[in-house]
Amino acid sequence: MTGVPATPLRLTMDGDALVANWRALDRLSGAARAGAAVKADAYGLGARRVVPLLAGAGCRDMFAAHWAEAADLLDLVDPRRIAVLHGPLRGEDVDFARATGVRPVINSLEQAARWQQAGGGACDLMVDTGMNRLGVSLADLAELSGLQIDVLHSHLASGDEDGPLNALQLARWQAARGLVSHDRAALANSAGIVLGPAYHGDLTRPGLALYGGVARQELAGVIRPVALPQTALLQVRQIAAGETVGYNAAFTAPAPMRVGTVALGYADGYLRCWSGKGMLRDAQGASLPVLGLVSMDLTIVDLGHSPHSKEGDWLDVDYDLPRSAAMTGLSQYELLTGLGRRFARASE
Ligand SMILES: *Cc1c(COP(=O)(O)O)cnc(C)c1O
């Protein structure tokens, strides 16, 4: 039997940086403990390799969005440490939670009734304090009774900005804490952690910053990059002045050039917004600008500063999250979670 050949794309994760980021966020959370949002396959990095590293560092509470995401982690951590943010939409969600011990986050009176009718048990509660996305509204809290609430959550709409909504949501969350009994309370995502101790409660829920995102300026210099996309050079060619490269001839060589084609395209999440803007690097750190339009599986780069690069070489993709977000108009979240399934997820 011959094996499957290696993919020409890899997403290298710096596990030490991931752990250092969790520790920094846990420290910044003061008296509260930092948990971790591991939804969307740990923001694209691979939840099955992220979760054991975080658990080993002392992270207790993990947040998935879907039930299937929780199911994928059951052999890695105590299921009672996993909570599902979308909550129980159907009876099968309730059955799964009760059978495994995974905590549902109750988001509506309907979800509360569904949980209690099945016999209930430990759950979390999401209270809407102004985002109008998921959660029981403050006015409806009085209709809840008998829920066995571990964590009372709310979620900030604009933690990454300074504005009146943060203080308003904080006040409403504090009011909710006075209305329903609970063991622990949580409000802050990555950005919310640096808004100060009032936002910490007992538990914080960082996601983006764990994976190298700089959610607010205060975290610059604290948070280390975690994700490094790399791609293989498939072909090198010499072109003459006046020749064009790629679809729609979007780039014309002003002089004779050495160009290379790499195995990375918009199907991998390297979207067309990188056309004419992105940058790759060779092993010596030389910069290799993207030429013309990104295509589905391929991108063409200028090898002028990399005279020795050759077919088969691995190249790094410049993917500094705050800088990339500013350049492309994509959010740091989209930049991470958009990296596609063709990347082999590897650890450093
Ligand atoms: C995704 C999510 C988080 C994590 O937010 P970041 O901005 O990535 O830190 C926290 N809480 C809830 C409810 C979420 O949905």
What do you see in this structure?
With 348 residues, this protein is α/β, with parallel strands linked by helices. The chain folds into two domains: 14-213, TIM Barrel, CATH 3.20.20.10; 227-319, Lyase, Ornithine Decarboxylase, Chain A, domain 1 (Beta Barrel), CATH 2.40.37. The protein has helices at residues 15-28, 39-43, 47-57, 67-71, 91-100, 109-117, 164-179, 190-193, 321-328, 332-337, and strands at 9-13, 33-34, 36-37, 62-64, 82-84, 103-106, 122-128, 136-137, 148-153, 184-186, 203-204, 227-239, 244-245, 251-252, 257-262, 279-281, 287-291, 299-302, 314-317, 344-347. β16 (279-281) and β17 (287-291) form a beta hairpin. The radius of gyration is 23 Å and the shape is elongated. Bound molecules: pyridoxal-5'-phosphate. The site of pyridoxal-5'-phosphate has 13 residues, from α8. Residues 37, 39, 85, 155, 189-191, 205-209, 215 line the site of pyridoxal-5'-phosphate (PLP).
Q: Which spans of ≥5 residues are poorly predicted at pLDDT below 50?
A: none
CATH topology of the largest domain: the name is TIM Barrel
The tally of helices reads: 10
The percent range for strand residues is: 15-25%
The CATH first-level class of the largest domain comes to Alpha Beta
Give the name of the CATH architecture of the largest domain. Alpha-Beta Barrel
| Alpha carbon gyration radius | 23 Å
- Spell out the helices and strands N to C: EHEEHHEHEHEHEEEHEHEEEEEEEEEHHE
The CATH homologous superfamily of the largest domain is called Alanine racemase
Classification by helices and strands: alpha/beta
Helix content: 25-40%
Q: Biggest β-sheet, characterized?
A: 8 strands, parallel
What number of domains? 2
Number of separate strands: 20
Q: List cofactors, ions and other ligands.
A: pyridoxal-5'-phosphate
**Overall pLDDT score:** 97
Report, as a whole number of angstroms, the end-to-end distance.
29 Å
Tell me the overall shape.
Answer: elongated
